[in-house]
């Protein structure tokens, strides 16, 4: 079996092989090649697995993204995608060969980490990826959706004061120009765990709405000065209004956009996709049970390619030291690292000191963005703490000011 890189001339066979692997048929692209989810594929970054007879039997790709880390640092990140093996060639090592080939290529590019969305959660941990962010879908019955401000100390009541000083403008997706692209870019630079959306995606309508050009309405929120500071992309099916994504890092703006959705005529239920698990929205409702969690799932998975490089790239919010013994069985590597944090910056060097924590590289991926506490994985039996205080010290060190969240689909 051969694993080879692809070029633009391989696009048709790459897309056909991938769809065959999943038992699907590709849609028809538009005249410019856009309007389909794979329109933004970077063919120079993809690979094909070819059997001895010359038939393509597997695919794997990667997008060029930027990932926002705790502390606001932005780093390059390869978004692994389009991974599939024909049903006739599974359990023959095709996937492992492609992933090993791909990881070597990502390292050669000098990147410290890669990310993916896992179609099946049991597959990618063995390749060193760990679930690093999660996301929720909420369903709100309109008749239960009244807001009530939290009772402040000394306040007399809990009546909802209504929307803030900004305003909401309703646009069609097709008429939004670059306003969504610009609003998303501001959001993703402020939100740990968020990925960039390159201009190519917006221009080609690749991905899912609102990047895709499927008919959508957009509730565009403007601040008191008229500047856009958030949006919600939505559609109406029967009496259910579904919000594809709500983009803002301002909790008050988020609440105003939800108010808008709940106030829409002829709507009995509002479904909100991609709500951060720690978002205070549910506490906004007079009836805490108004927002039902209908999905709570992993989203972004992280794989560290360069442990010292990745740990020194992110920001830190507590001082301390940890010795991490990191095992990478897929690549046959093991390293012991002394992580020292002072004033928000980290130093990470090899050491022969006794470890505080022993862990798999996939578990370090889960910890990396701050979405999972080390003590949680100690309790789960994934991480071994070598002394009684190690998990507590690790929790304090990996803690972040804002939990990571990603809503980009790729």
TrEMBL record:
<feature type="binding site">
    <location>
        <begin position="91"/>
        <end position="96"/>
    </location>
    <ligand>
        <name>acetyl-CoA</name>
    </ligand>
</feature>
<protein>
    <submittedName>
        <fullName>GNAT family N-acetyltransferase</fullName>
    </submittedName>
</protein>
<comment type="subunit">
    <text>Homohexamer; trimer of dimers.</text>
</comment>
<dbReference type="InterPro" id="IPR022902">
    <property type="entry name" value="NAcTrfase_Eis"/>
</dbReference>
<dbReference type="InterPro" id="IPR000182">
    <property type="entry name" value="GNAT_dom"/>
</dbReference>
<dbReference type="Pfam" id="PF13530">
    <property type="entry name" value="SCP2_2"/>
</dbReference>
<dbReference type="InterPro" id="IPR041380">
    <property type="entry name" value="Acetyltransf_17"/>
</dbReference>
<feature type="active site" description="Proton acceptor; via carboxylate">
    <location>
        <position position="410"/>
    </location>
</feature>
<dbReference type="InterPro" id="IPR016181">
    <property type="entry name" value="Acyl_CoA_acyltransferase"/>
</dbReference>
<feature type="binding site">
    <location>
        <begin position="119"/>
        <end position="120"/>
    </location>
    <ligand>
        <name>acetyl-CoA</name>
    </ligand>
</feature>
<feature type="domain" description="N-acetyltransferase">
    <location>
        <begin position="1"/>
        <end position="154"/>
    </location>
</feature>
<keyword id="KW-0808">Transferase</keyword>
<dbReference type="Pfam" id="PF13527">
    <property type="entry name" value="Acetyltransf_9"/>
</dbReference>
<feature type="active site" description="Proton donor">
    <location>
        <position position="124"/>
    </location>
</feature>
<comment type="similarity">
    <text>Belongs to the acetyltransferase Eis family.</text>
</comment>
<dbReference type="InterPro" id="IPR051554">
    <property type="entry name" value="Acetyltransferase_Eis"/>
</dbReference>
<dbReference type="Pfam" id="PF17668">
    <property type="entry name" value="Acetyltransf_17"/>
</dbReference>
<dbReference type="InterPro" id="IPR036527">
    <property type="entry name" value="SCP2_sterol-bd_dom_sf"/>
</dbReference>
<dbReference type="InterPro" id="IPR025559">
    <property type="entry name" value="Eis_dom"/>
</dbReference>
<feature type="region of interest" description="Disordered">
    <location>
        <begin position="149"/>
        <end position="168"/>
    </location>
</feature>
<keyword id="KW-0012">Acyltransferase</keyword>
<feature type="binding site">
    <location>
        <begin position="83"/>
        <end position="85"/>
    </location>
    <ligand>
        <name>acetyl-CoA</name>
    </ligand>
</feature>
